[in-house]
């Protein structure tokens, strides 16, 4: 089981713009491709996902500030609150493999996978693999899985925008 791939769920939640209603949450769940049953979501799931988004954002912000202790403490608290229940499953013409599940609600299942994924990525690759986009004013989260730990932007669009802004600033300064 590659728990690191679950870390992307944390990034998707942190970056998801519309959690104002159940339709926004359904959109997020549809984007994850994890088979979480959006039809079963409740207002309680929505409220809990908003809270989880704030908690995960705080982890990324702590890393961005260089406060590893705070980031790890926050992750450990999330691990305690969202214990994983591994299960052996088979689906989509794949053989038997492990999945993580929560206590049953859609929120619990999402939280367990996102938190375990982040914790696994951090312990395997390091806290410096979590980042917030450095292109102003964007502050979207990303995971740096590059071989040289060089990622600074959430997307190619932001990287391009930042490079153009630097180029224009140099041209203004030189003329």
How would you explain this protein's 3D organization?
The protein has one domain: Orthogonal Bundle (Jann2411-like fold), CATH 1.10.3300.10. The protein is mostly helical. The protein has helices spanning 7-15, 22-32, 43-64, 68-81, 106-125, 156-174, and strands at 85-89, 97-101, 130-132, 141-143. The strands form two sheets. A two-stranded antiparallel ribbon has the order 1-2. It has a two-stranded antiparallel sheet with strand order 3-4. It holds the Pfam family ABATE. It comes from Thermopolyspora flexuosa.
Summarize the structure.
The chain is built from six helices and four strands.
Secondary structure tally, helices: 6
Radius of gyration: 18 Å
Q: In terms of structural class, how would the helical and strand content be classed?
A: mainly alpha
Determine the strand fraction and express it as a percent band: 5-15%
Number of strands: 4
CATH classification class: Mainly Alpha
């Amino acid at each position: 089981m590659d728990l690191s791939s679950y870390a992307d769920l944390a990034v998707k939640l942190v970056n998801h713009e519309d959690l104002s209603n159940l339709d926004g949450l359904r959109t997020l769940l549809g984007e994850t491709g994890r088979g979480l049953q959006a039809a079963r979501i409740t207002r309680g799931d929505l409220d809990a996902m908003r809270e989880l988004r704030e908690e995960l954002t705080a982890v990324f912000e702590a890393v961005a500030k260089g406060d590893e202790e705070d980031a790890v403490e926050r992750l450990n608290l999330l691990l305690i609150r969202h214990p994983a229940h591994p299960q052996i499953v088979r689906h989509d013409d794949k053989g038997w493999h492990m999945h993580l599940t929560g206590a049953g609600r859609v929120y619990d299942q999402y939280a367990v996978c996102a938190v375990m994924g982040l914790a696994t990525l951090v312990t395997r690759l390091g806290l410096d693999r979590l980042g917030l986009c450095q292109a102003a004013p964007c502050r979207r989260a990303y995971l740096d899985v590059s071989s040289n730990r060089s990622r600074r932007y959430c997307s190619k669009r932001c990287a391009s925008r930042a490079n153009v802004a630097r180029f224009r600033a140099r041209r203004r300064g030189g003329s």
